[in-house]
Design goal:
Chain A is of the alpha/beta class and 500 residues long. Helix content of chain A is 37%, strand content 18%. The mean pLDDT of chain A is 91. Classes of the chains: A alpha/beta (500), B mainly alpha (471).
């Protein structure tokens, strides 16, 4: 037999074997591999399965909370407060950026309920440090199995490490190269033309204390600010621009409303530590992004200067991690933007963004309320978990919130929740409790079995009560389900809303 | 460039195809360029170190051939010293400084504590030895000096064996580099078979057990005695499959272009003694030491005391070759010690060979297991970063009898290990490519399918570099 014919024949056999192996893999091990190596997909699946209409894509800014925060909910949870009747969901992954968001958005099926997508636009993600970050390696690795290729080919890519791998030393080398290469242009004379020189100059100059001595800690921080924000986005070469452009195209294709949430940066500190030149670059980049994407029909929420310095959690580093008030400010601005799309569904929470009037917990563990240990995978109305109460666990997941954190002039409270009960013999009660020296201890319980008589299926119960006149003199209010009997019940999707 | 990377998946077919398309007189240039590219994928500037070694030995060999008498020896010594100096500078300088500093503290003389750390150029020990082998062979007049600088450079840099061997001899490789290679279907197929086998050994066996070994060596006190035993067992197969994998791919990649490299392994864990183990493990290095060091010292044609010294010296040197650390030196010494004891006992207890085949089988099985246990135990010194950690492993092995199991081993790891052991036994004194060639088409293709599927689907997604890269 001719050698070339023999080789050709073997290639054909090999191709057939690979096709067969692809099917074998797809129908046997792919699912478990995805859970193992690309668990990020679960967040997309949750959003789709829960029929969310609004989806928020975020990075660490959407998970970081302060230890002292009374309300430890995320920006996306706080946005959801403004639209109590619209199902919202979040896809959050630390260190993510536009490319990761784009890949995840592609995984949302065309026939899903998603209508609006809010994408975090983090200015820092355009800088050299982030573009060349070694964190990119695990992020890209987590996407390999999700690409639109034959399953076996994706697994091959994973096995042979066919994704961007950036080591620490490579990252440093590439970052420095970018810093050296990029020439910074100002409309006026400035002594430094690139980050390397500016960083050196800043290090030499340092930051002085009031008595004129050098403050070492602040000097280091100032240099870090230079390295983080001293860049000018080049729309022709910056990879993030390309990724955000892809998101715009995808949104157009899917008929999604698209909102870019340009996160706040600590401009006050940038100004005080480094000076107006750095602030100039930050604002120039902001203007570029806002104008570029407004022109493309995207609603861009400009939060660059929205959060004051004291509301940043990390005082000695550059992050977009906000304390409660910072998160509320960002959420309020995004909600204002969403109001244009959902005017009917917008629930005003008062003039002050610091105070609230609505709370929601889907019992998935993302929003921290009391008695989180009652969350179980045994049953769920939405998502995967519900709170199980009874059989020794007397208190369900519940809200405990300071009254001073609520907006003024409230008169009514409505609690909506889903309940699953096997029998009607339990003594579970929906409890509203007020605690405070001036108000005294007030406790009101409403029997669940009286609110719904249906067993063995999820039921929506709704209870409205008028607030007592001592309400505003109380310190804390609590809402939860209490069950001392041995017959457990399950509760899910708590919604607590006050109104005037 | 790593053999188990996507870069190599693209590099190998391109280089091999181009090799056959080019006329013979251009092939050396093509292979040399490809080898430079392959090497520069790690740290590009280190190619200059390689160039220094190549240049020294190229010139030295020509002068050795030209001259006679004392001058000839002088050129050899200059060549050996200067080549070894490069190795010493990058590999042993820091180790030397540290020990001199410690010694100065003990003996009370002044020695500055210098902290100069160089990144060891990948494969330096391998190509240094290959280069030395050439000048020694020229000196011994068993090899003519190569006048063509390009061909000689290719002999040292030939990409399949550049980084971790096999350490070739000029009589084998240099000769082949001048031969006109004609495309042969069998060469290509056998080469691909070896590559497939190598990838399976590295990616499916070595990398999957590596994760457990790392866990155990990181914190041995947390694990039960049984877990430590599992760790020792796993490491024995990790290092074997890791190095066997690399060597098989190397031999396979060369074979695909018609070049035959020497085999580095012959079922070492089926050895019935330590001396047999060293005839089967890292053969290219063992024979290098045997031919150029052991024989030069008189080999075994000396008095017993001198022979013991020769053996211990050889093994200590072999340990030092592996790494600039006392653990490697003691690892080598331990092997030498067992080797000597085994041989002395054999001389004293000249046992009669059993005639009964079953008795022979039982006896050999027992001896194979005994040798495997000894080798696995001594591997502790090879794997542990220092004596403290090695001691901790040994103490945990004996003291943690009552600790609960703390190692959740995936069942698939045991299945693959079992499969590999069966395959290793089936390949006894044979090689995968030749063994495969004798199977029926359906069985052969079924094995290919299982191996391809395992490599793609069951290989570890973590990055475990080839262990011998550090040497």
């Amino acid at each position: 037999m001719n050698t070339y014919f023999k080789i050709g024949l073997k290639f054909i056999v090999l191709a057939l074997i690979l096709i067969a192996l692809n099917f074998l893999y797809k129908f046997t091990l792919l699912k478990s591999d995805i859970q193992k190596y690309s668990p990020i997909i679960n967040k997309v699946t949750d959003v789709v399965n829960e029929n969310c209409e609004i989806v928020y894509l975020g990075e660490s800014s959407n998970v970081a909370v302060g230890l002292d925060d009374l309300d430890k909910r995320t920006i996306s949870d706080l946005i959801a407060d403004y639209f109590p009747l619209i199902k919202t969901g979040a896809i959050t992954k630390e260190a993510s950026h536009a490319n990761i968001f784009y890949e995840l958005l592609k995984k949302i099926p065309e026939n899903s309920a998603v209508k609006t997508v809010i994408v975090t636009l983090n200015m820092r993600s355009f800088n050299a440090t982030w573009i060349c970050s070694p964190l990119e390696t695990p992020l890209q690795k987590s996407l390999v199995l999700l690409k639109d290729n034959p399953a076996l080919f994706n697994r091959f890519k994973l096995a042979f490490k066919w994704y961007p791998i950036i080591s620490d030393s490579e990252s440093e080398k590439k970052t420095k190269k970018m810093w050296r290469k990029e020439i910074l242009k100002f409309p006026y004379e400035f002594e430094y033309s690139n980050v390397i020189d500016w960083d050196k100059g800043q290090a030499l100059r340092g930051v002085k204390n009031q008595d004129g001595t050098r403050n070492e800690e602040l000097s280091v921080l100032a240099c870090h600010y230079v390295k983080t924000y001293a860049f000018q986005i080049d729309t022709t070469s910056n990879p993030r621009i390309k990724d955000f452009d892809h998101i715009v195209q995808l949104a157009e294709k899917r008929n999604w409303h698209l909102i870019f949430n340009l996160l706040g940066e600590n401009t006050e500190k940038a100004d005080s530590l480094v000076g107006r030149e750095l602030l100039f670059l930050m604002k120039q980049n902001r203007d570029l992004l806002v104008n570029r994407y407004n022109r493309k029909g995207v609603m861009v929420v400009d939060n660059l200067e929205a959060v004051s310095s004291e509301d940043y959690l990390d005082k000695k580093w550059t992050t977009e991690h906000y304390a409660e008030r910072g998160r509320r400010i960002i959420a309020a601005k995004v909600a204002d933007c969403l109001k244009v799309l959902y005017p009917e569904d917008y629930a005003s929470l008062g003039s002050s963004t610091e105070k609230v009037a609505a709370f929601y917990n889907d019992c998935e563990g993302k929003t921290v309320w009391s008695q989180m240990q009652t969350l179980t995978l045994e049953k769920a109305f939405s998502g995967k978990r519900a709170s199980k109460v009874g059989q020794g666990k007397e208190y369900s997941i519940g809200l405990e919130y300071p009254v001073k954190g609520l907006i003024d002039s409230l008169t009514n409270l409505t609690v909506d929740l889903r309940v699953f009960q096997n029998t009607l013999t339990h003594d579970a009660k929906l409890v509203f409790e007020l605690v405070g020296e001036k108000s005294g201890h007030q406790w009101n319980g409403y029997r669940i079995a009286d609110l719904t008589g249906t067993t063995n299926s999820w039921q929506l119960i709704s209870k409205s009560i008028s607030l007592p006149k001592e309400f505003y003199s109380a310190e804390l209010f609590k809402v939860y389900v209490w069950n001392t009997s041995s017959d457990p019940i399950y509760v899910d999707d708590f919604r607590i809303a006050f109104d005037k | 460039m790593l053999f188990n990377s996507i870069e190599f998946v693209l590099f190998f077919p391109i280089v091999t195809l181009l090799f056959y398309f080019l006329p013979h007189n251009h092939r050396w240039k093509h292979l040399l360029l490809a080898s430079c590219f392959f090497y520069m994928f790690f740290i590009p500037q280190y190619i200059f170190i390689l160039l220094i070694t190549i240049s020294i030995d190229y010139v030295a060999a020509i002068y050795i051939e030209k001259t006679t008498g004392g001058k000839r020896k002088l050129y050899l010594i200059i060549s050996i010293i200067s080549t070894c100096l490069v190795l010493f500078f990058f590999k042993y300088f820091d180790f030397f400084n540290q020990n001199m500093f410690l010694l100065s503290q003990q003996l009370g003389f002044h020695y500055p504590e210098k902290v100069i750390k160089f990144i060891l150029p990948i494969g330096l020990s391998f190509h240094t030895f290959q280069s030395l082998s050439y000048v020694i062979e020229v000196y011994r007049e068993k090899q003519k000096a190569e006048k063509h600088f390009g061909i000689y450079s290719l002999y040292v840099m030939f990409y399949p064996q550049l980084v971790t061997g096999p350490i070739e001899r000029p009589q084998n490789l240099l000769r082949q580099l001048r031969e006109v290679k004609v495309f042969k279907y069998d060469d290509l197929v056998n080469g691909l078979r070896l590559i497939l086998f190598g990838l399976f050994a590295k990616m499916v066996i070595a990398d999957n057990v590596a994760a457990y070994v790392d866990q155990i060596y990181a914190d041995p006190e947390r694990f039960s005695s049984l877990n430590i035993l599992e760790g020792l067992f796993f490491y024995s197969f990790q290092i074997y499959c890791d190095f066997l994998g690399y060597s098989s791919i190397a031999v396979g990649a060369a074979r695909a272009m018609g070049y035959n490299l020497m085999d580095n392994f012959k079922n070492p864990y089926l050895s019935t003694s330590i001396s047999e183990f060293w005839q089967r493990w890292h053969i290219s290095l063992s024979t290098w030491f045997r031919d150029y060091v052991y024989f030069s010292m008189g080999g075994n044609r000396v008095k017993v005391q001198r022979w013991i010294f020769n053996i211990l010296f050889l093994f200590v040197l072999s340990g030092l070759w592996h790494g600039a650390n006392w653990t490697f030196i003691v690892w080598g010494f331990m092997h030498g010690f067992v080797y000597v004891i085994e041989n002395l006992l054999a001389r004293i207890l000249k046992s009669r060979k059993a005639q009964n085949r079953i008795l022979v089988l039982v006896s050999n099985t027992f001896r194979v297991i005994r040798t495997f246990i000894i080798v696995s135990f001594i591997w502790i010194l090879f794997r542990a970063p220092d004596f403290d950690q090695a001691g901790l492993i040994i103490r945990s092995l004996f003291n943690n009898l009552t600790l609960p199991n703390a190692l959740a081993i995936d069942n698939k790891v045991w299945i693959f290990l079992f499969f590999f052991i069966v395959l290793d036994i089936a390949l006894y004194n044979n090689r995968f490519d030749r063994w495969c060639g004798k199977l029926s088409t359906s069985v052969r293709w079924s094995i290919y399918a299982v191996m391809i599927f395992s490599i793609i689907v069951f290989s570890s997604v973590e990055n475990f570099p080839f262990i011998y890269f550090q040497f």
